[in-house]
Amino acid sequence: MIQTTASKKGFSLVTAIIVIILMSSVSIFVMNLSSKMTRETTAQYQREQAMLYAKSYTEYAILAVMANDRSAAGQCLNEITGTIGGYSIDVQIAYIGDSTEIVNCSTQLDNTVVTPESPLSIMVDTYVSYKEPDHPDPTNAPDIVYHKRTLQKI
User: Fold this and answer.
1) Residues 53-99: pLDDT tens digits?
2) Which pairs from 134-139 meet CB under 8 Å and 24+ separation?
3) Contact 79, 105 (CB under 8 A)
4) SS3 category, 118
């Protein structure tokens, strides 16, 4: 009888160790999966923010060009920059058209395909850059850049 009780205690100990190892493995798997999902959600959130900032700054650039007097020398709006939180925004504006309004603009595109009847248009390139938050060295993290190009008649 004594041997059976000892063997039952030994079997219970081995069973308990196996259950602890299995539960630990499952816990590690769940924590790893949770960590990956958190990183992916953060990356998706940052990309969505960059897209929204690009759209917003593109619309702002179009409104700014429409409100700007381009007839005087050096009055063309060519660039808009900004910083919001950890996002840096750079907007480049190029003018397209056979119009006397943009004769003095430095960022004219080649007018060989433009007719006198063509309206004035602008090409807006918006670049939104931000750092990866989970990079091991945040000061040396490479920039992630989202680019949006828009062609707009003025």
Assistant:
1) 999 999 999 999 888 876 666 577 889 999 998 899 999 998 887 66
2) 134/39, 134/42
3) no
4) coil
Cβ within 8 Å of residue 73, ≥6 positions away: 104
Q: For the chain, what are the domain ranges?
A: 2-153
Q: What is the pLDDT of residue 20?
A: 95
Distance (Å, whole) CA 56 – CA 40: 24
pTM over cut 0.90 = no
Q: Which amino acid is at 102?
A: I
Task: Name the token pair of 75.
Answer: 């009055």
Q: How far apart are CA 86 and CA 50, in angstroms?
A: 10
Strands 143-153 and 121-131: antiparallel
> In terms of Cα–Cα distance, which of 133, 126, 117 is closest to 147?
126
